[in-house]
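ping. complex inputs:
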Amino acid sequence: MSVVVRNLGFAYARLPVLGGIEAEAQPGRITAVLGPNAVGKSTLLRCAIGLLRPDEGDVLLGGKLAHRLRARELAALAAYVPQRSIVSAAFTVREVVRLGRYAVGRSERRVEEAITTMELTAIAERPYPALSVGQQQRVALARALAQVPERGILILDEPTSAMDMRRARNCFSVLRRLADEGATVLMAMHDLPAAAALADDVWLLAAGAPGHLAASGPVEQVMRGDRLERVFGVGFEWARRGDGSRVLLPETRIDASSTTM
Amino acid sequence: MSLTRRQILGLLGLLVITLTAGGLRLLVYRDLEGVLTWSWPAPEIARLRWTAVAVAAIAGISLAVSGVLLQALLRNPLASPFILGISSGAALGVMTALYVAYVTKRSWVLAGSDTPPALLGAMLTLAVVYLLGQRRGWLDPLSLVLIGVVVSAICGALIMFLQHLVPQGLRGDLVTWMMGHIRQSVGAPFLLTAGGLALVGTIVALLMGRAMDAATLGDDEARSIGLAIGPLRLALFFLAGVLTSVAVALAGPIGFVGLIAPHAARLVLGPRHAALVVGAALVGVTLLVGGDVVSQSIAVSGGRMPVGVFTALIGGPAFIWLLRSGKGQV
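pong. complex structure:
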């Protein structure tokens, strides 16, 4: 199932945030949504999952208009993880993960699989509010994994931003496996080298009034050093490692003169 | 609804405490010399005591379940049935009726039939808060709280204005009503209607337990897992409003029950809402029936201690303890 964005425009209280966005996230591929702060990445994802109604254009989720989907239809197509997951009750980790099955039928097997996959077994009975932010992010991902149908759509807003490197790599590896099995993964990220290593495609958003798509397509076509420097104000370059694989690196070491205004 | 062992034991424990409170209310009384004693009452007296138990139970269930619903609706552990301004609206209804009775020299309100004006005032307030508490076509938790506070303040100002216009004696009637009281004499039709509404409301709340669990997630996440959050909020708002109105019309604005009962039940049963609805209802009954026993037992200047004073004296410190101990979660 694909996510197709057609000439999308969105404004908060007449303040234009996004305009003219045309892009597609395909099944079996991981698509990274990249861009500086406040460029509209989260807004784009919320439009994509049908939580916001676009002012112009539309989003097709699995061929259906996203904002017209009823909540239960949406849950059966796609799972979503916001930037900061909120649970306002002292549910245990297992109970929170179980909420992922709210509208798609109970399945303890899927719940336990998700808990194991996200390495949460040891803290499964711990209350959610007592967890660190990184652990809460793993719980949110586990909830989404327990929900998402086979070859479904995963829409994730910086899901690993508070995780340590090993946990983040584990999550990326799980997402890679899901994509290889046919899922569509659309994920906002700030870690450009990680995005370059993980994603198949990139939607690169650039600041403006409104935020717009600077480029979209396969990683190596979109993430060129000069383009990234224009969008982020930071230089990047591709390097080749000993095993022949390519990695994206920031151009310079950070020192006191690295501030760009 | 699957219950854990802890929840089953907790519910059984609460049930035993509730039944004990009910038994005490039927048996304990103060004799003519003012000494506390107990015995099985004569049929006429028993009927009055059964009525008091029924009134306390219906009001307790309504306030406690309403508290659970509102804490889920507003995602706020401080939410109570009176946060929406319903008690102030009901009090304004009673005060208006007292004023109309005074001006028109009619005595129907003064004869103790404060139920219709209280119900009318509560329902009108509910309608105003509903109309003003929306954003982008849906009920918004923050707007609801703010509008509730403002509506309460406006009702309070109007009550003071009307109090200024009537003689001292009538002001006393309102003050007595505001303290909350468990009546021993209520018309059977009203009691049956109120009991029916409390029962249906509790069953509907029980059926919404899973949805309330899901609503503890943020709005976006809740919708993404398949919860229609807008219609749920509407249902929670109206159900809580009707239950609160029933309780206020039946027993006056008795504070703290709707705040404390959900928290007490949560300590015993955990956060799952289906179990919480049943547990809070039992705690609500215990608080009001038990409160009425205490009220019967303590003579204050020739009368009884108002039950609302008891619930505030118990509920206030209990709530401070919950806040200080960090055990107050939604």
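The interface with chain B takes residues 46, 49, 51, 70-72, 74-76, 78-82, 85-91, 95, 99-100, 102-104, 129, 140, 143, 147 of chain A (CB under 8 Å).
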